């Protein structure tokens, strides 16, 4: 491996075991990535044999050296298990595991959603250090997340999020038994002037609106279905704390212990190429199972409650 000017160059020697093998199969085996991801590298001209670009079906000879130049050290495909809820040639929806960051930050080398998906195929749109990213979940938050595979899909999805036409629903276990069965929380959200690594509900912040309905209460806690109508950083965590019910496990805003019990349960949007409305549900982590088992059935999260709509949301709902 050689790194120069923010890029990485891998040189792979072809031995007897690789003789006669197609270059795409050779790279998929050696790098541990999908054939689709290899084809993306080949199309981008990132792969050379003997100083020349090659076709996927090119057969390798013993003693040859295959060079792969990655776009940057932080965006190397890093195969790791990540549940796929849906994927096609334009986008991919995943159930992000708790603790997995969405994209690399700084010089971190740990896997992220972006680098895991790059091992399956291309992502497109947005800054080079976070391709395909349309929206984000905190590393500590699990659940449904969509990323774009094409520039067109990225533009469409970003616009839908910007215009508040995307359905976002979360499950949260909060401290205390919430008295109201449902409600709406309004509180402007901005960066904390005293602790800039945190956000705060403050008059100088941006408009933020969150709706909620209580699904269950027990032993001094409540299971809440939450729909943020705006998309401010840490909005749900701040708003629930503002009404006296911080999310269980919130180390940043609630002095919590253990995992953060906040999960992106349902995500809906208009498919960028098909034009039809799609909704995706992400099975929650095991900490939610006992709560859901006590409900009559999980369809309560889709019907009979004030929040789930029968039509796509519109701006200002």
Structural summary, described in words:
By secondary structure, this protein is of the alpha+beta class. The protein folds into three domains: 2-70, RNA-binding S4 domain (Structural Genomics Hypothetical 15.5 Kd Protein In mrcA-pckA Intergenic Region, Chain A); 76-162, Pseudouridine synthase, CATH 3.30.2350.10; 164-317, Pseudouridine synthase (2-Layer Sandwich). Helix content is 16%, strand content 28%. The protein contains six helices and 16 strands. The chain has helices spanning 23-31, 35-43, 113-118, 151-162, 235-242, 289-294; strands spanning 2-4, 7-13, 47-49, 52-53, 65-70, 84-87, 91-96, 142-148, 167-175, 182-186, 189-191, 199-201, 209-218, 221-228, 262-270, 277-281. The strands form three sheets. Strands 6, 7, 8, 9, 10, 13, 14, 15 and 16 form a nine-stranded mixed beta sheet that branches. A hairpin with a 7-residue loop joins strand 11 (189-191) and strand 12. Helix 1 packs across helix 2. The protein starts with a strand and ends in a 23-residue tail after the last helix. Residues 1-6 and 298-311 have low confidence and may be disordered.
CATH topology tier name of the largest domain: Pseudouridine synthase
Global geometry:
elongated
CATH superfamily of the largest domain: Pseudouridine synthase
Structural class: alpha+beta
Order of helices and strands: EEHHEEEEEHEHEEEEEEHEEH
Q: What Rg do the Cα atoms give?
A: 23 Å
End-to-end CA span: 53 Å
Q: What's the pLDDT, averaged over the residues?
A: 86
Named at the architecture level, the CATH assignment of the largest domain is: 2-Layer Sandwich
Low-confidence stretches: 1-6, 298-311
Number of helices: 6
